[in-house]
Specification:
- The protein is an all-alpha fold.
- The protein has one domain.
- The protein is built from 13 helices and no strands.
- The radius of gyration is 17 Å and the shape is globular.
- It holds the Pfam family MPAB_Lcp_cat.
- This is ER-bound oxygenase mpaB/mpaB'/Rubber oxygenase catalytic domain-containing protein.
Length: 277
Amino acid sequence: MPDFVAPTSIVRRIWGTSDTVLFIFAGAAAEFALNKAVDWLYFTGRLPADPLGRLFTTVDYARRIVFANQAGAERAIDTIAAIHGAVEARRGQSIPDWAYRDVLFMLIAYSIKAFEVLERPLTMTECEEITAVFCRVGRRMGIPDLPTSYPAWLLAREQHLAQNLAASAYTTDLYLQYRKHLGGPRYQLLRAIQGRVVPPVVRQLLRLPSGAFLQPALAFYGLTKHWPASQWAKNALLPTDYQARIQALDGAPVEEAEPSGAAVIPLRCPIGHQVNV
């Protein structure tokens, strides 16, 4: 059975590195706070209770798809799509197609940006590969009008950023929850990291710092990230209760049974904060 993503793919390298994954979700957490479909985050009211736990559950699901074989990935994607359908039926309306694309585009955008901030510039071939992988996920989920190339995605991404973002009361509340669950120092670090990876329009709407002061630390971290002592940089972003889960993000995920009871909905609902049913 072939793998859904080739073992040598840049996508596996990105999603098998805890540093990069944390930066991906820092950026996505910022952008979706501005998304005009952000009300879906609040449909069940579960988000404020455990935003960090929701982040890790979303990471786990995304990584299962990236590291699964073709059949396993398709089963996971089909389950996610079915859960979304159930949530839409429960609310009595559909999540707009553009909102589905926005979230998929965030996976592409922040996979690229996080890797480039922490590692090196990506080649055009690597950017095409990242775009192709996540658009395959989207097509399997039935998301329409997805781009067929990296240049086409760049154009669609700019259109989405221009049309689908606005600050709202939900934006304010989400950032209050981030601060509550992270604490002051980690919250400020989160905002600095977000400032390094988000597009200018997102940085402006959220009044994020540029994060330029992080560059010397990031450069030093790049030289020492393989040292055991470098774990402090990852642990600095999240509370100590999550250290084991941060370490588990390095490498392929361990195969586990699907969780019972509440089902988690990544990808077609806000990154890092799922609606549960």
